Amino acid sequence: MKKVKKQGMVGAAVMAGLILLSMPLGAGKSLSRLREEAAGQFYHDLAEYSIYDGLEKRREAAENLLTIAERYADSSPQLEAAMDEVEYQIRVCENSYDETFIQTVEANGQLGQAAAGLAGALEAAGLSEQDQKYPAQLLAQLESEQDKIARSSYNDAAREFNARLQRFPANILAPIAGVGPLGLF
């Protein structure tokens, strides 16, 4: 009789241990699935917009600003620092795609600031009549894409996911499962 009770207690302890182990694993899997659904909108949101493509368009506009600046670099040495900063931020953007998009958000913001600085420097550099319109147009293109990125449904999905991570029991289980928040553009 004692042996049966002891086996029952051991069995109950093993079962309790398995249940406790399955909770973080199950929660981790569930949170990872929810995160993947929200993160998927980075590439294809509800309005058929791709933040990834928008970021590429912003990078291309910044590269076009550089092309214009290169024409005037010899005659306007003050452009060099702004050009170097834009070149650096373009490279950072190209290498910033992380699974949480937090680094991507930061790199995108820095690229916008660097491009605005270069556009301002170009306007002060005495551009030819033909080139005078381009810095403002390219800056407007950067801002337009940023507006589309900011209005993407990805941001709503990421905000909702991040809020879920703050609620019980996810706020306890997410760190254990290695699931972190998503970046907001």
Give keywords.
185 residues; single chain; Four Helix Bundle (Hemerythrin (Met), subunit A)
Summarize the structure.
The chain has 185 residues and is an all-alpha fold. 75% of the residues lie in helices and 0% in strands.
What does it look like?
The structure is a single chain. 75% of the residues lie in helices and 0% in strands. The protein has helices at 2-40, 51-72, 79-94, 102-123, 133-150, 153-166, 170-177. α1 (2-40) packs antiparallel against α6 and α2 (51-72) packs parallel to α4 (102-123).
End-to-end separation in angstroms reads: 65 Å
Q: What is the string of SSEs from the N terminus onward? A: HHHHHHH
Q: What overall form do the CA principal axes indicate?
A: elongated
Instruction: Work out the helicity level.
Output: over 70%
Please outline the major beta sheet. Answer: none
Instruction: Predict the CATH topology.
Output: Four Helix Bundle (Hemerythrin (Met), subunit A)
CATH architectural arrangement: Up-down Bundle
SSE blueprint and pairings:
Blueprint: H1 2-40, H2 51-72, H3 79-94, H4 102-123, H5 133-150, H6 153-166, H7 170-177
Helix pairs in contact: 1-6, 1-7, 2-3, 2-4, 2-5, 3-4, 4-5
